[in-house]
């Protein structure tokens, strides 16, 4: 059975389970080697790359659907997801399903709710679902080298803009950095997301005043220069800042 026939068979099984006009598309960012990555699937059908999203079940809350599709399609769970935009241009999926008859329910117009998430790639034990050939972290700098389906490139770009806006009022880093990190490593994360350099003294002063860090009695060993202090996030204060926003940033 070829990929098109396989897709049609699975489509018939799914049409009574899911809402035909609503999907959730999580954009999961990771941080590695001073670069941002995004989690993508390469589909068996058409071999194009997609976000690990999916349709919403008829008896399911939207946020629960986003968490379920991310778990089922990529193997990622216990991730903080935040809704950031709605995508609903007319005929946004028509070209992707051009090989099928117009009666295919996937080919009809559907609206996608965009979520973004932050996740450490080192903590991910990725899976490949029945619709995909690959599930991989792709550097943002490499996105122009692959073929993204539908409007998923636009969704990724808007997710990055939303993440940049979020920095001004909510903390980041808890799900992207290792448990212990230096201030320079945290600054590099902020600079990578913002796409610009930050003044070291100003950044250190502001980040310390937020009260979300805990200084450890340890230093980063092995460098040629003075060993920098190590920090971890104060989990309780970090969660409060996520809920209430930052006051002194």
From TrEMBL:
What taxonomic lineage is listed for the species of origin?
Bacteria, Pseudomonadati, Bacteroidota, Flavobacteriia, Flavobacteriales
Q: Which Gene3D superfamilies match?
A: Nucleoside Triphosphate Pyrophosphohydrolase (3.90.79.10), Winged helix-like DNA-binding domain superfamily/Winged helix DNA-binding domain (1.10.10.10)
- Domain of life where this protein originates: Bacteria
Q: Which Pfam families does this one have?
A: NUDIX, WHD_NrtR
Which InterPro entries is this protein grouped with? NUDIX_hydrolase-like_dom_sf, NUDIX_hydrolase_dom, WH-like_DNA-bd_sf, WH_DNA-bd_sf, WHD_NrtR
Q: Where is the Nudix hydrolase domain?
A: 19-164
Record's protein name: NUDIX domain-containing protein
Which species does the entry assign this protein to?
A: Chryseobacterium kimseyorum
Matching entries from CDD domains are given as:
NUDIX_NadM_like (cd18873)
């Amino acid at each position: 059975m070829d990929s098109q026939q396989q897709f049609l068979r699975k489509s018939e099984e799914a049409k009574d389970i899911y809402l035909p006009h609503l999907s959730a598309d999580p954009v999961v960012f990771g941080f590695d080697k001073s670069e941002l990555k995004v989690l993508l699937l390469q589909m068996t059908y058409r071999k194009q790359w997609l976000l690990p999203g999916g349709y919403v079940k008829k008896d399911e809350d939207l946020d629960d659907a986003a968490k379920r599709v991310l778990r089922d399609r990529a193997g990622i769970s216990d991730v903080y997801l935040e809704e950031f935009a709605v995508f609903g241009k007319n005929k946004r999926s028509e070209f992707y399903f051009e090989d099928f008859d117009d009666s295919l329910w996937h080919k009809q117009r559907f609206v996608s709710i965009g979520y973004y998430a932050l996740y450490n790639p080192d903590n991910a034990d990725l899976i490949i679902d029945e619709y995909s050939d690959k599930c991989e972290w792709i550097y943002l700098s490499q996105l122009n080298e692959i073929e993204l389906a539908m409007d998923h490139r636009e969704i990724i770009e808007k997710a990055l803009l939303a993440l940049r806006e979020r920095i001004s009022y909510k903390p980041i880093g808890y799900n992207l950095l290792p448990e212990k990190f230096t201030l320079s490593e945290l600054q590099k994360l902020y600079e990578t997301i913002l796409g610009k350099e930050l003044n070291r003294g100003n950044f250190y002063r502001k980040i310390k005043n937020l009260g979300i860090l805990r200084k450890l009695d340890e230093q980063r060993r092995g460098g040629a220069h003075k060993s920098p202090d190590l920090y971890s996030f104060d989990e309780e204060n970090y969660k409060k800042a996520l809920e209430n926003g930052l006051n002194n940033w």
